[in-house]
Amino acid sequence: xxxxxxxxxxxxxISGANAAVRQRFAFDDTEDFEDARRGFLGTAKDRxxxxxxxxxxxxxxxxxxxxxxCPDTANPxxxxxxxxxxxxxxFKVTEGIYQVRGFDLSNMTIVEGERGILxxxxxxxxxxxxxxxxxxxxxxxxxxxTAVLYTHSxxxxxGGVRGVVTEADVAGGVPVFAPHGFLxxxxxxxxxxGTAMGRRAAYMYGAALPKGGRGQVGAGLGQTTSTGAVGLIxxxxxxxxxxxxxxxxxxxxxxxxxxxxxxxxxxxxxxPDRSALCMAENATHNxxxxxxxxxxxxxxxRVWARYLxxxxxxxxxxxxxxxxxxxxxxxxxxxxxxxxxxxRDLYSYVHDQTLRxxxxxxxxxxxxxxxxVPPALERAWHTHGYYGSVSHNTKAxxxxxxxxxxxxxxxxxxxxxxxSAKRYVEFMGGADEVLRRxxxxxxxxxxxxxxxxxxxxxxxxxGNATARTLQADAxxxxxxxxxxxxxxxxxxxxxHELRHGPVGTPTVTASPDVVAALSxxxxxxxxxxxxxxxxxxxxxxxxxxxxTDGEGHTQRLHNGVLTHVIGTGPAAAEPDIEVTLAESDLxxxxxxxxxxxxxxxRDTVKISGDPGRLAELLGHLxxxxxxxxxxxx
Length: 633
What we know:
22 helices, alpha+beta, eight-stranded mixed β-sheet
């Protein structure tokens, strides 16, 4: 996608700040570039990866502009990181271990065994995964996949599995390894709050933004998300404890479980016969997120740091290389220990100092303004906030311990955004006066204030074109100056949508495979989330599902709440309708692929009671909106 013509140049304050970044950090340090290019074997001849319909899902040349000098519309530190992340191809990590990098947001790692290969992390979509595997085979031969391993429960590490193996392969004996709790977290994250997360991920990764010096240059952890078919094949081997050892195809692995770090279910893997350590996403070449901007459960930096210490104790002394699910490896035993130690200290520092300051009475916003990384850590490029940031990670620690409320009763019961905005604008003398003053603030370079104050005008009157333009211009400048890739994408996406309207959600992770992997309990819970509570206050409907191939379930809609219990105990009310069917039929009903009338027509289904009650219950469900407004009310 070419750069849109309405992107504006950098203002003097931003270009000056970006120039100062060049003077502040050691841009003549080339060690990361040497590590990132080490072992390069080649890349794909076909630079565009397409789906079956010919739609582009990944373009290897999209970031070719990063080879040029950094313009003043981008932070030079982020530009450097994006150049490193945009290197694509097959790389030899060490004897028998290879990585395909730059084919998606994440890396695919391939470990050679006696007969075939172990594939670690299968990228986000089948198309990019298939292209990555094809690249490997073009250099190393057509080796069969003898095992798959998911390091953790985020979609960019399992979504491309169908580009690597089929269900028939797995049924035929190809094991799929994953950390304990993987399936529960992988599917629930993408379904329960999946619509909201997906919409916000459109801002976080900026996949719909034009690529270029005034547009999307990367996301810090990788460039962006691919837009192909996301799948999931459930794991067959559960890793349940640290120290667990598994051997597949002659490949010996020792596991370290790290729940509650970068993902709720995650693990590191040591390969003792190769002196290599896979750190999953627990130690990458940036400060990671404690609370990702797309939304998630707040991660625990205290536990994260302890697991990094444990990894050093368990594995670093016998590891000549450390690699991860993103970025490039770190080579040399001493450098591996230094890298992991600095990563550990980074998360510990943010955690401990946030706690120190909140116990002195500072709020999350105040702590974020004060927090600075120690100079010794900041000198290391891999501690920079390209993906997570010191600012929003500090607020995440505050949220983890104290929640959203800062303790000031003035903030306990504020008006919601639109009502607050109307009052603010009226108090400030009307929209024209606000915009007059805001334009002066823009000239003064106070873009943060322009975004904040003009946002009130936009929410009070979303049709005010002048306000939308001014806020978009200020957001754009904040994006140009940001070292953090996801902040830049959020700012530029906000500007884009203020100017052009919503772009929707480019990548959908709640795919049929992910939804099909939900347990029945999770499916019932997912339905309960969709109940229109106020419209259901007076409803009282009970449905009993008698499974011919499993336990029975009772659902009741009462007091605006859809509950379900297993069996027919005291918590199960007397049913208005009773349905006897197979679990596959029940899943079809809960997923909405089979309606009550079609269900009643099936010979294998027996219904006792009024079928209309089931239709009435389903009628109380709402449909999530994947295109909801973010920068406008």
